[in-house]
Design a protein that fits this description.
mainly alpha; 2 domains; two-stranded antiparallel ribbon; 35% helix
């Protein structure tokens, strides 16, 4: 299979990068190179830059979203990466603002000594906590504690010896 990255194409890309570096412009991204040279994917553009770098014709400093290419023959570089980020085509995302609290009663957490038993389906509209008072800092009210509590002898029958339990 014939390679798309011919010496003529690499020479043209090198000349374009040298021209941009001389003008102090931003190093083109993979998508821009792919459009200019009609590559099927941006990965081919990345390979072309890698090939020029491997040949020692350019040195590339990569940033999070951009790169800076230095032409080794002249020492000229494209615009710094920070400037490349400012010149990007996508507008900056807006900052997140404060969010208003949802209306309705505020549920006090477990520190408030309220039952945490979930009534109904938790993911549905009818899912809510029992919120009755608890005793001795338990997580559930006496009615729900009866439903879930397993006496030590039952726990031992079901799960085997309970560590730390003195008979």
């Amino acid at each position: 299979m014939k390679s798309l990255l011919t010496p003529q194409l690499l020479d043209d890309l090198y000349g374009w990068l040298a021209e941009r570096a001389g003008a102090g412009r931003v190093c083109p991204g993979n998508a821009e190179i792919a459009r200019r040279y009609e590559f099927a994917s941006a990965a081919t553009a990345a390979k072309a830059i890698g090939r020029l770098e491997k040949q020692g014709r350019i040195a590339v400093r990569r940033g999070w979203t951009a790169r800076q290419a230095t032409i080794t023959a002249t020492g000229e570089s494209t615009a710094p990466i920070a400037q490349a980020n400012r010149d990007s085509r996508s507008p900056p995302r807006p900052m997140a603002g404060p969010v208003a609290a949802l209306p309705g009663p505020r549920i006090v957490g477990p520190g408030g000594r309220q039952c945490q038993w979930i009534e109904g389906e938790p993911s549905g509209d009818d899912g809510c906590k029992c919120l009755r008072g608890t005793e001795r800092g338990e997580s559930w009210c006496p009615a729900h504690l009866e439903r879930i509590y397993l006496p030590p002898d039952m726990a031992e029958k079901r799960f085997g010896p309970v560590p730390g339990l003195v008979p």
